[in-house]
TrEMBL record:
The keyword Protein biosynthesis does not apply. One of its GO terms (molecular function) is serine-type endopeptidase activity. The gene is Acr_6. InterPro entries: Peptidase_S1_PA, Peptidase_S1_PA_chymotrypsin, Peptidase_S1A, Trypsin_dom, TRYPSIN_HIS, TRYPSIN_SER. The keyword DNA-binding does not apply. This is Acrosin. Keywords: Disulfide bond, Hydrolase, Protease, Serine protease. Residues 2-242 form the Peptidase S1 domain. It comes from Poecile atricapillus. It comes from the Eukaryota.
Length: 242
């Protein structure tokens, strides 16, 4: 789950989804994702490296607690998986994927679409950002948090994060980094594919700026979370969705 995070209120992040593998025990939660149209979820390609029969996987929308679904929750199945054709597992380049759902989702107070920014938004100037997910509470804990967790983070300069004492060149131009230089707040295992959102500087709405990709350990100093920039893949997303 989110390190040093707090439990999210129902409807706080109405685009977040839980992507679930029915072969796993418990809820089957494997990755997060974001609803960007009634029938499409944006997530990370690395979530599906070992995936079998992805059409059996569930996508849970409108949920806060995975084991106690309210009437606002909706369940869909995956119709198709479109992982980026140039995704590479060893370097985590192009770590982005789309899931087409078997049926469109109905929007409500608890289910809303996330906004992906086009080239006109200056993402680096956004000040108030959040991460959310159901992933594990620490690097060692493999279990999933039952209640959706959230944490406030800062976007970090990619050049700084690529410097020798940080990630030493492992960050690509299509990545964003977020957290705090001293660590303490971060996404962990199980939050893969989930949203990094930032509030618009002049408006109350949020932009889906990143998809959780990877990080070294959890919430360690100079090891912030690494995200795939949605803005960088804006055209790819449009083309895939047809």
């Amino acid at each position: 789950r989110i390190m040093a995070g707090t439990g999210a209120q129902p409807g706080a992040w109405p685009w977040i989804v839980s992507i679930q593998d029915p072969r796993k025990i418990g809820t089957g939660h494997t990755c997060g994702g974001s609803l960007i149209s009634p029938q499409w979820v944006l997530t990370a390609a690395h979530c599906f490296l070992q995936a079998r029969n992805v059409t059996m996987w569930r996508v849970l929308i409108g949920a806060t607690q995975l084991t106690h679904l309210g009437p606002e929750a909706q369940v869909r199945h995956v119709k198709r998986l479109l992982a980026h054709q140039h995704y590479t597992a060893d370097s985590q380049q192009n770590d982005i994927a789309l899931l087409e759902l078997d049926e469109p989702v109905e929007c409500s107070d608890y289910i809303q679409l996330a906004c992906v920014p086009n080239a006109s938004l200056t993402v680096s100037e956004l000040k108030t950002c959040y991460i959310a997910g159901w992933g594990s509470a620490s690097a060692k804990a493999q279990q999933v948090s039952d209640v959706l967790q959230e944490a406030k983070v800062r976007l970090l300069d990619v050049h700084l994060v690529n410097s020798s004492r940080w990630y030493a060149g492992a960050i690509h131009t299509h990545n964003l980094c977020a957290g705090y230089p001293r660590g303490g707040m971060d996404t962990c295992q199980g939050d893969s594919g989930g949203p990094l959102v930032c509030k618009d500087n002049s408006d109350s709405h949020f932009w889906l700026v990143g998809v959780t990709s990877w990080g070294k350990g959890c919430a360690r100093a100079k090891r912030p979370g690494v995200y795939t920039s949605t803005q960088h893949f804006y055209n790819w997303i449009l083309v895939q969705m047809g």
